[in-house]
Amino acid sequence: MNSFISHNALLLLLFLFFAKGTITFAQDEVTDQDSIMLTPPGRVVINNIYVVGNEKTKRNIILREITLQTGIYYDWEELISLIQADQKKVYNLQLFTSVEITPLLTGSEQIELLVAVTERWYIIPNIIFNLADRNFAEWWTNQNRDLSRVNYGARLIHNNVGGRNEKLRIGAQFGFVRSFELMYSKPYIDKKQKHGLSAQFNYFTQKNIPIKSSNNKQVFYQNETEDVLRKTNTTLLRYTYRGSYYNFHFVTIGYSNTWISDDVFIQNPDYFLHDDNTLRYSLISYTYRHDNRDNIAYATEGQVLSLGLNKYGLFNGDDVQDIEFTLNANKYKRLDNRFHVVSGLSLNYFFGQQQPYTLVRGIGYNPNFIRGYELNVIEGQFVLVHKNSFRYKLFETGFDVGDYMPLDEFSYIPFKFYLSANFDQGFVNDKNKLPENTRLTNTYLFGYGLGIDMVTLYDMVFRFEYSINNQNESSFFINFRAPF
């Protein structure tokens, strides 16, 4: 994370210098190189916390992430450790391109704490131009680079409404999947900043849809007249409780309504598991999430744990009655300045014997994948995946384009490159043992290979990987998100 003290921070530093006297550390002896060894005090107390650079973001949103408090004595080593942790927490708000917390010694045991941030560009008119398929390899190989499978449209995203870290997203999409979306989230609705709410509405239609899988690959269908085959609208309301810095609780209630054409039933009579063109159900879910990573977009240190329980069908009239359990646990361990290892476990389990095809899970659907099997979907009621990467930081650089870019938020473009050695393994249990998919279901799977990961502006991630699976199939894959 690149960081620096802004112009405002320097002004504040000068103010503290002249207002309270010279900022000094205890001076030790002078070495032969005439360098001065600075010895910090054993303990210090924070008199004030100053926040600079937050032109839009409210001060309380930043202070919510900071453990350090005024009026409390800290051992110096403890202070430095807490500063490093607090920097990561503020950065992981994803509101700033840089964060630096600096202790300014103004007396023998007195300090001022300076929090200097550089804000991102929050209002993003987003042009939608993406592939409708699960990943790039699916589109390139299985769908023969069909340009009709492209989505296009526009989306307006505001990532910091009112400076309170509220999110607003509204968009319309055309092309392969036509959709409309509206989402608003308010992370804190109380003064203590523990409770939050969000609401989301999605509507989409499709003329070409996956109707089943065969030989562990998706089968798509479109009728001759290119009619709409599927319409879906979903409404969700979510409550969030954040009792501590790294622990979150989510309770979501919602309603889903999906209509399909009669032609879909001809192709797959079990698409909905009941004799009706409409699938309606209510749902409620609970998720616990512990997240203590140095960078939530591409972590090199820390851990994240997510446990979820979803109940589909709350009333007797609902068309689905099932329970789903999910688990995702990732551990990131930094070995030194260049090497780190990552290990992640994903589990998904449906209690029911069979699900409507709109709820089918498996390897190949995010977040469950095994490198080397990007072209496949391995579907079932129990999914277990263990992913591993050993990464080496090749180099880090950046370009100052301020002379050509009028917006300060985009004036510096950073790049980090990592070499990654990968090994993934997993298993899918299909209770129904569908004969058309037995090649890869109910059997041990693994894949391995090498890759290059690139992390750039606003924590965007690009992965270029060559992978081989235990079916002796190999290929080069391009992905646009972090694997963990």
From TrEMBL:
This is BamA/TamA family outer membrane protein. It comes from the Bacteria. It is found in: Membrane. InterPro entries: Bac_surfAg_D15 (IPR000184), BamA/TamA_POTRA (IPR010827), D15-like (IPR039910), POTRA (IPR034746). Residues 1-26 form the signal peptide. The keyword Signal applies. The keyword Signal applies.
